[in-house]
Design a protein that fits this description.
By secondary structure, this protein is α/β, with parallel strands linked by helices. It is built from eleven helices and seven strands. The two termini are 13 Å apart.
Length: 288
């Protein structure tokens, strides 16, 4: 699934889409203002407190039993974080703490771990939507926004955790905007498929359905939903990647049969650990 498998899904232009490392975000969003820097400092303090508390839970203290032998260095897992606007502030700080804890546990078990985030670079479609308007608004233009995909931790990173500097970038208040889930899953899956590990798992953390008003107004309210469903169906048919999801205050089981939902982002850390243990204790998908 190196490319999008859905021919009915269109993109008006990819010219403004960006895939960047966490330390390249200034080049897309501009440097943080003094006010936003203070907001990041406050969010990071909240992250640090949440991470400390999460390691005191029974789920964090218990060994990751049942899958060490099958995991080890032949397993790659990607954590894909929805960075839509509703995740700004405290939800993002708590999600970051849950991810940081999961990375430590997975690395201790020998897994390769990648952490990715997805959002858009602007609100209300940005430059793609302006181009569409300049061209007299042709019907059914396809996706009308500029994607922003961020690599917070590369799967080849030899470290035992995700860096604090990467977490600070994840907590930028100017980062969360819209969420194009289907293309984000294609992106994360494509990165997994080129890896050499035999067992590959993609775990999505999401707090809602795909949303981009510009795209949905021009193509229909269910345009992005239909694309996500098609992408997920394709991944399951191909069978090379095990895929699951954690819904944050949102039931994701309609998209991801292998999933859990947490009612509060504060419950995410312990629930994520338990869910990962469950995913990796079953026979993993094998790439051929």
């Amino acid at each position: 699934m190196a490319s999008d498998p859905t021919p009915d899904y269109r993109v008006f232009t990819t010219r403004f889409d960006r895939e960047v490392r966490w330390d390249e975000l200034d080049g897309v969003l501009g440097p943080l203002s003094a006010l936003d820097t203070k907001a990041v400092d406050a969010s990071f303090a909240e992250f640090d407190a949440a991470l400390t508390a999460s390691f005191e839970t029974p789920a964090a203290q218990a060994p990751a039993t049942g899958w060490e032998v099958s995991a080890q260095p032949d397993t790659a897992i990607t954590l894909l974080l929805d960075q839509s606007g509703s995740m700004r502030g405290a939800p993002m700080a708590l999600a970051a703490a849950a991810i940081a804890q999961a990375v430590r546990r997975l690395r201790a078990a020998g897994c390769r771990v990648e952490v990715l985030g997805f959002t858009t670079a602007s609100w209300r479609g940005g430059r793609p939507r302006r181009r569409w308007k300049w061209r007299l608004r042709p019907r059914h233009p396809g996706r009308l926004c500029e994607l922003l995909h961020v690599v917070y931790r590369d799967g080849d990173d030899e470290g035992s955790e995700i860096s604090g500097a990467a977490i600070r970038s994840m907590l930028r208040p100017d980062l969360p905007k819209e969420n194009i889930d289907g293309e984000a899953v294609v992106w994360a899956a494509s990165r997994l498929l080129v890896r050499s590990e035999a067992a590959k798992t993609l775990l999505v953390l999401s707090d809602g359905s795909p949303v981009d008003n510009s795209t949905q107004q021009a193509n229909g309210a269910m345009y992005l939903d239909a694309h996500l469903q098609s992408v997920l169906d394709s991944i399951r048919r191909e069978g090379q990647i095990q895929i699951g999801a954690v819904g944050i205050g949102y039931d994701v089981s309609g998209w991801y049969p292998e999933s859990i939902s947490v009612q509060s982002v504060g419950d995410l850390a312990s629930s994520l650990n338990v869910f990962i243990d469950r995913l990796l204790s079953v026979t993993p998908a094998r790439a051929h």
